[in-house]
Amino acid sequence: MRNKRFKAFERLNRWIAVCFCIAVLLIAAKSSAQTAGTGNIQGVVTDSTGALIQHATVTATNTAMQVKHTAATDTNGLYSFPNLPIGSYTVEATAAGFKRYRQTDVTLEVGSSIAINITMNVGGTDQTVVVETAGLSLQTEDSSLKQTIDQNTLTEMPLNGRQMTSLITLTGGAVNANENNDESGSKTFYSSAVISIGGGQGNATDYRLDGGDNNDYMTNVNMPFPFPDAVAEFSVETAALGAQSGLHPGGLVNVVTRSGANKYHGSGFEFIRNNYIDATNFFSTTKDTLHQNQFGGTFGGKIIRDKLFGFVGYQRWVNAQTQSNTTAYVPTAANLAGDFSASDSTQLLDPLTGIKLIGNNYATTPGVTWKPSPAALALVKYLPQSTAANGLVTYAIPSQVRDNQFVTRVDATLSTNNSLYGRYFLEGFQSPAFYSPTNILLTTNAGNSERAQSFTLGETYLVSKNLVNSAHATVMRRRDNRGPDARGINSSNVGVNIYDMTTVGMQLTVTNKWSIYCGTCSAAHFNVNTLALADDLNWVHGKHQLAFGGEWVQTQLNVNNVYEGNGTFTFNGNYSNKGPAGTSAGGGSTPDQNLEFLVGAMSGYGQSKAQQNALREPIPSLYIQDTYHMTSKIVLSGGVRWDPEFVATDYFNRGSVFNYNAFL
Asked: In this structure, are residues 351 and 597 in contact, taking their beta carbons and an 8 Å threshold?
């Protein structure tokens, strides 16, 4: 009996859990679904007594393009314009027996869903009641928490580097989360950001550009965005994302590029920073070495009046500077002769025998002979020379950046029921690695040649006055060729007889002294290709506004990374104060890693195979959402989303499998 009661109680708990999950879905959904990169206008039409007006004709006209969108009120007096391009609109309404209604300067922001409720007065249609809008309309149709930054703010706000992602953190609840993680860096595009929105993970933010996908699926950060002068506005949604926007749960960044209009418009700009006109930092003893220029322009206008519009923009960024000074301690001329008396104040031992070095000098110590490693002596020739007793050298790694951005967009009104747009964005970034045959310490920074492209094609089709379909197709490609300067060396150049995977690269670390090359500097190729297809259908039926659709994303990740394929050599100071077995007595508290390097007393060596991936992954999703206008003051919404996760597979069927029995 107790067992039956327990099972009944268990079934009840399961039903409660299911109901709770459904309730969470209903509460979390936005009250009005929309396609990313657009906005919604909806409302109710009544007479002066509050009675509903059926079959009224409502028109929303884009002020810049003079493109008209038409809808009709249903039996509940409701009308809706889903997925409108952002901008300024004039909303008009006509009905038999009533004066014409006109409301001007209705501003529709990206991601917004505003209500324009219309009250019509009895009279002839040749009479017009004009309402002028002051400020933004209140978003009574949208429960999401959103902040929008318009084009004026984008271009007027001082923005170091002019990166769109830098503005995301201006919104509430958005913080930079790129600390101690591997989600951005030399493997991703240089401008990719790791941003946490509303407490979500740094790679749980969904990025959209002109309604199309703009996510880099290698680490789920953003693909690059155009420069500020080419962006109309963008919004950041931090809470209550709807079923349509559930790809990433952290937040939604929605960016829209500028369009052409019936009036031609253009701009030119140049931003200069250099040490000729910039003030020197108060605490600095030398002038800044920065020389930076960012220049470009935009142009847009009509191709065919009221029908076809074009926009184009270009920006070039040139940056040259010397990074902050770095210190290193290299072997001195005395060290090369076996004399460490001036460079070390604590007692040293011979790393190979453990014999105490009298006066820290091999020449005055019986029983040991100074025999430096030929490979070490060959490598020392590539190091800068030091005149300091302790081998101190100071150097600065140069930095040279070249970046080009090009964006173009075409908007076409094919008919009163059909509109189309296409946008192409290209960015190329180059930051070369450096090498000097007299200072190989410069090789600890990676060189990157990066290129990102995206193309989005979108269509909005008015099936009927109550049914609108929006479709998007996006193709993205990112390529990052990383590696050292081709003039560099590998271990074979200094006489080390090991297998080298590439002709350049030798990761060697003399702990607390100096190092050359690095794992994230190694030769590598990273490539992400993505195809995203999405379709959204909005249907106004009675008091219901239904939105349903889906998206199919097919992404590829191709990686060929040498990483530590040329080996890693480490000299960390295990032997010069404790001997080869680590048990010799008489050594001081501080070892000399340069001594161990010179005699070849290596503490560690490692080598990896190339990291190679050819991953393929589909990311499908479906959703349905309902906005129910219960009364003129109460709106209920709910939605569900199907978002399965498929494991990425390698095109060549490569992978790792752990077998416990084989391990034992």
From this structure: no
